[in-house]
Amino acid sequence: MSGFTRDAHALVCDGVPVQAIAAETGTPVHVYSASVIDARYRQLDAALQAVPHRLHYAIKANATLAIVRRLRALGARADANSAGELEVALRAGFSPGDIVCTGVGKTREELARAIALGVAAINVESPGEVDRIEHLAAEARSIARVAVRINPDIDAGSHRHISTGHRATKFGMSVADATQMLRDMARRPWLKVTGLHLHIGSQITALEPFKRGAETLIALAESLADDGIRLEHIDLGGGLGIAYQANQPIVSVEEYAAVVMDAVRGTDLTVLLEPGRWITGPAGVLVTTVVDLKRRPDGGWFVVVDAGMTDLLRPALYDAWHTIEAVSPRPGEAIRADVVGPVCETSDTLGRDRALPPIEVGDLLAVRDTGAYGAAMASNYNRRPIAAEAIVDGGKWQIARRRQTIDDMLQWDA
Ligand code: LLP
């Protein structure tokens, strides 16, 4: 059986009992299923097969080398948002021509590195950035491949912290400003304008925002073509949501692909996507040990675990729901419990008022769908070491990243 399943009630990942991994690694530990990553990448790729496309995995979702390497082996390209992510892409074996560089606020050093490498596209965010790129490209005597990030003024409908496509956000440029800038860019010798880019948000669960975004880019590409500016690609970013709760309505990958394909059909543009969460989110669980049980004043329980907001920030930052299960559920009557971490903040709550089987100190819980924006957003707050990560592949598991030690954590201090 592949993915996360139950065997005689206990949670199993690709045939390996999660309990067996935790017994060796200790907790908290992120456990990833390679087969889930493979299956989801292939499903998205297959859904788009009718049009020329490239899937640039958004490294920010999970930047652990074993995961990024896996995606490269599957045929993905990469989307890097910082010098660190660019280095991850290179160390995972991507060639520069497979990498797009995105992000607001790329530093001069980051731009120079991207230009020297000759990445597939630098997604530019402002006229100032274009000037800096041109200057650096001229200095390096190397033509920079650039795409322009458009802000299409679309409300993606997801949490306001992760909706990036409406005009009040810091991301991209309006169609009007970008059009003018693109005409000017086409005349600059050290720039090669390759495409248009957008990313309107993350965890999007409706089709309409994707459709409107794609239509905006196509309309702009067509008007540029009328001016003699011919583009190679449109990059529709990431954003496809996943079901964190059973029966949560989401857009299917096939519906999403249909919108993407409709947009580019009849053009000679290659479509680029930057999926992150959809591929790796469901491929990971965070395994944690119960360290204390406290009564809530209303008669429920606080189940205190050894993972917290430093290991999974999403509930604290976005009020996000992650399903929480006992790894080996005990029989008996369900309890109501807040599952809380050890960090000194009330927001350090992984799940509020959940129904759980009877729990004892020492039991293992699994927090589901943590493969994206889980380990990637970890911090050392409260001087807590970063958790271990393990990946299961073909019935065998190995460490993907060892647990940080206290010495690792303190080594930069003077
Ligand atoms: N491309 C760009 C330019 C992005 O900024 C992002 C995500 C992606 C692609 C990938 O989006 P995805 O397919 O994963 O939705 N920490 C938040 C999510 C922040 C997303 C940031 N940008 C969370 O945990 O929900």
Write a brief caption for the model.
The protein has 414 residues and is α/β, with parallel strands linked by helices.
Draw up the topology in text.
Elements lengths: L3 E4 L2 E4 L2 E2 H8 L3 E5 H14 L5 E6 L6 H10 L2 E4 L2 H9 L7 E3 L6 H10 L3 E4 L2 H14 L3 E6 L25 H11 L5 E7 L10 H19 L6 E3 L17 H12 L5 E4 L3 H4 L3 E12 L5 E5 L8 H5 L5 E3 L8 E6 L8 E8 L7 E4 L20 E6 L2 E6 L4 H5 L4
Parallel strand pairs: 4-19, 5-6, 5-12, 6-7, 7-8, 8-9, 9-10, 10-11, 11-12, 14-16
Antiparallel strand pairs: 1-2, 2-3, 4-13, 13-14, 13-18, 15-18, 16-17, 19-20
Bound molecules: ligand LLP.
Descriptive keywords:
414 residues; alpha/beta; nine-stranded mixed beta sheet; eight-stranded parallel barrel; 12 helices; binds ligand LLP
Helix segment tally: 12
Strand content: 15-25%
Q: Regions with pLDDT < 50 over 5+ consecutive residues?
A: none
Helix content: 25-40%
Distance between the termini: 50 Å
- Ligands bound to this protein structure: ligand LLP
Oligomer: single chain
Number of strands: 20
The average pLDDT is 97
